[in-house]
Amino acid sequence: MKRQQTIRIAAAGDIHCSPENRDRVVGAFAALEDTVDLILLAGDLTTHGEPEQAVVLADACRGLTLPIFAVLGNHDWHSGRQDEVVDVITSAGVRVLERSWATYEIRGASVGVVGTKGFVGGFPDSELPDFGEPLLRQVYAETTAEVEALELGLEAVSHCGLRIVLLHYAPTTTTLVGEPPVIWAFLGSDRLGRPIRDHRPDLVLNGHAHAGTFAGSIEDVPVYNVAVPVMERDFWVFELEGGVDAPGDQPDIHVETEAAEPPGEHRGPH
């Protein structure tokens, strides 16, 4: 007989850590201890990609007993010091996923997290083609590498009972609604959604679009924009309910959110 359980995942993106918001960030992370099973961070961890800004996140995470997985966002690359940012936060126990994946077991349920930043490129009727000047083709190639990483990662975690995709850029327009459509091509790419449609993970998270929409989907796969300005809170807790016969067995997962009503929209820089 299956033993029912609930796995609680705290997610946030666009935290934009800096010395100015240190107290809020540290307090928000401290409040998660003993209340959730896993923390996922959907990029833009810093304001401008400076190591001293990453120290704020590192201080917030250091000492927590929770597993923490993160991807970088465009802000984390802005200063060209992204490797230093990664070094700072990994020293505090954060696992940064860069075109990679990880697996973790929570009370007998195997969780696979596939993480990458994602990139731009647009959506049907306004997609960047693999054509023209070398610089434009480099943009296309960068997104191709992100898509290939998602494909490989989802194949690698296919055995997991719960499969999550963690992105910064959006893989669907459904989480961009609220942003001006003329800039959607710079907020994500439909190509990121193709591995998701093929492999159908249980949950997809993105950030980046501060004026976007919280809840979206790719066909029947739930996608959530967990940018802090969209959520209007520090974290959103997802409850994944299922049953496990014994350690190693796979749960049946149903995704719910902790609040019945979605948050409102909030505009701001990406």
Write the layout of secondary structure elements.
Layout: E1 3-12, H1 22-30, E2 38-42, H2 51-61, E3 68-71, H3 74-77, H4 82-90, E4 94-96, E5 100-106, E6 109-115, H5 134-156, E7 162-166, H6 193-199, E8 203-206, E9 215-218, E10 221-225, H7 228-231, E11 236-244, E12 254-257
Provide a descriptive summary of the structure in words:
This protein has 270 residues and is an alpha/beta fold. It is 25% helix and 25% strand. It has helices at 22-30, 51-61, 74-77, 82-90, 134-156, 193-199, 228-231, and strands at 3-12, 38-42, 68-71, 94-96, 100-106, 109-115, 162-166, 203-206, 215-218, 221-225, 236-244, 254-257. It has a six-stranded mixed β-sheet. Strands 5-6-7-8-10-9 form a six-stranded mixed β-sheet. Helix 2 links the parallel strand 2 (38-42) and strand 3. The model is unreliable at 259-268 (pLDDT under 50).
Task: List its salient traits.
Purple Acid Phosphatase, chain A, domain 2; 7 helices; globular; 25% helix; alpha/beta; 270 residues
Short note summarizing the structure:
With 270 residues, the protein is of the alpha/beta class.
**Percentage beta strand:** 15-25%
- The H/E string reads EHEHEHHEEEHEHEEEHEE
Taking all residues together, what is the mean pLDDT? 91
Provide the low-confidence segments as ranges. 259-268
Number of domains: 1
Q: How does the helix and strand content classify structurally?
A: alpha/beta
How do the strands line up in the largest sheet? 4-3-2-1-11-12
In the CATH hierarchy, what is the class?
A: Alpha Beta
- The CATH architecture classification is 4-Layer Sandwich
CATH superfamily: Metallo-dependent phosphatases
Output the radius of gyration.
18 Å
The helicity comes to 10-25%
For the largest beta-sheet, the strand count, sense and barrel status come to: 6 strands, mixed
State the CATH topology.
Purple Acid Phosphatase, chain A, domain 2
- Distance from N terminus to C terminus (CA atoms, Å) equals 48 Å
What is the count of β-strands? 12
What is the global morphology? globular
| Helix count from the secondary structure assignment | 7
